[in-house]
Amino acid sequence: MNKMKFFKKYIFPAIYGLLVYFTVRLLHDTDVNQRFWERQFYINAVELACSIIVGYLGIYIFRRLFKYYDKHWPVQLRYQDVVRELLILVGLNLVLVNAIFVPMDMILHQDWKPWWIPWADVADINMIPTLYAIVYYGIARTSTYLKAYVDNKVQLEKVTNEHLETELKFLKAQYHPHFLFNALNTIYFQMDEDHDGAKRSIEKFSELLRYQLYDQQLQVPVTQEIEYLQTFIDLQKIRSTDKLKLKVDFDKMLNGQMVYPLLFLPLVENAFKFIGGDYQMEIEAKVADGNIEFMIENSVPLTKGAEAKEGGIGLENLKRRLNLLYPGKHSLNLEKKENSFIAELKLQYER
Fold it and tell me: Which of 25, 103, 194, 219 is 20 to 30 A (C-alpha) from 37?
């Protein structure tokens, strides 16, 4: 590490200056059919020394500029920022090379005209160092812009995740009053007619609340969801009519699969809310082809005014949560038939 720092600080600037010098000499000598090593030694020595000085001063100026950029102009990955930085760097580089190379050329080549050099030399002196300065800028600033790009992506992802988390919390908060109202309404009608049943309902109600309030990890084993659903079904059976014909079938293969909580409940709640007709309900959950498939079908009233609905806050809330939690990894089908309403939800779980 120390060797690398030593090389970058003391050796590289000299190499940079010599690279500029030999490129200028190559283009110039090729154009005029001249060999620079055949010239007087002191001319080459002075030119090499001036080139090395330009290398050290140039790299020093570039690095100071980069520190200034980072301190005063935090990288935003904008085209305007790159152009601004590059123009400043090129401008200072031109001042440097003209301040050293032009006087050097005038003094060393008095055989032309006093204090005069050809325009071709002026062009080489300005263009070649400028091209190398641009290349150096691109290489030196690549890591800075790459880091800024990664930081921007991370920040964007963080903001997006925070936004989604806030929305999910809002959806969850929106759901709780809806659930509380239905559950308390059930217990209210039991109080006068069935005290023991009301006590059992309160016990089940407390179990449901405990799961919602304290057991809300990001994902939970599907068995916890099934236990929660079973408790909710038992609570709903208390308030349901004796005509209810309920069939529940939970696949024994549902055990360690991880799912996000409270996604099946709105479908069950909706079914109990709108059941009618011959009061039949069938609930089924199974594993198939890497998916957890949940299906619920309930009969609906025969009268027009009491038909089951596909909308409502509960189902719209569920659709939005599914889009946030399982983007491209779920399907939800709601179908109204003549005498029944069917809801099918498929979730792709992580194996």
Answer: 103
